[in-house]
Design a protein that fits this description.
The protein contains 4 helices and 20 strands. With about 425 residues, the chain is mainly β. The strands form 3 sheets. Strands 9-10-11-12-13-14-15-16-17-18-19-20 form a 12-stranded antiparallel beta sheet, with no helix packed on it. The chain has a 6-stranded mixed beta sheet with strand order 3-2-4-5-6-8, covered by helices on one side. A hairpin with a 7-residue loop joins strand 5 and strand 6.
Amino acid sequence: MKPWWLVAGVLLCAVPAHTQTPLETVNVFLDCEDCDSDFVRTEITYVNWVRDRAVADVHVLVTEEETGSGGDRYTFHFTGLRSFVGREDTLYYTSSNNSTDDEVRRGQTRTLAIGLVQYVARTSKGQNQLQVSWSGASPAVQTEAAPTVRRDPWNFWVFTLGLNSSMDGEESQSSFDWELEVEAARVTNEYKFEIQLDGNYEQEKFTLDEDDDTEREITSLRKEYTFELLLVKSLGQHWSAGVAGQARKATFGNIALGLNGGPAVEYSFWPYRDATRRSLVIRYSPRMRSFDYEELTIYDKMHETHPAHNLVGEFDMKQRWGSLSFESEFWQYLHNTAFYRISTFGEANVRVFKGFSVNFFAEYSRVRDQLALSQEELTPEEILLRQQELRTGFRYSAGVGVSYTFGSIFSNIVNTRF
């Protein structure tokens, strides 16, 4: 692990084993989806970790965004509550693309420790036992969002290669699949350039017993390959422009070769620097779409090219009460405006009151753009195995869940037995 330029370790001496009242220390509510909470509680034992924001003295909201080099930047928002109202701070920890899970969780924990110093120092326990140490090395925790620019022998290029495969089976059925992923990206403050190649191959075999004591084998095969390109130019804190393109082959969609591309412009209602906590953007793109089909379509086409356009609106918010995201997309062909698609997706996780939270998601699409549907009549087996896309006017999915927790407010103890 690299040495660190700034390490503020809060070291507290052992205290006699007696009951401590909440007034002697700080109640902290950690709001982080990608933190090792067991490790944090094991390393930082001089605060009370609580399960409910309503009884917390400090709320720590941790948000995450991917960096251009393939790492992650974690933003720690410290908000004082009750006796600490008005005392807020923001710190940043950035992991590299080759950081191990242990390095990441130690970096997160170090950042938490530094941010909690100002609160712990104002308790009776902190005033008697708090010590701060300093060691000189490279930076790990930042108090400003501006990235540090260094000489980079890779010139900001990051490459990712991935190949996964699996198989399983039994006497009457077997399956095999593999996935390929190749990515190249170069991200700076001014430009974002990404190239991605994905491949997916799925094969399933079933052996069925017939009435005449013979066996019949059914094979299900789905293949999909996608190549995507994206180039974006930053135009300040609210505007960006770019070009996107895609080439695709998919047996499920009757696509022998599909090409789709064009320019795009995006406007962010809030500055891009606020994206880890709130984001509202609208994006518009005129496109050309060209298709070669594997089978004759229901419109008697084996090839067609048409202009189209695309409008997307996205909203994301992560606050102390929970998180909310919403996306709506409109696709339309311009040669015949009757061919279009409208998709809407939303999800939320909201703390309604002490100990009670609700989470839900919903998605709906109005489908009027199925130009690629095959003329061939599907067999019952092909329909059940979803070998090809079926005609539909809409698609939907939804889910909801609630949780209610009550009892002790403290969650300091870590017990990993069994």
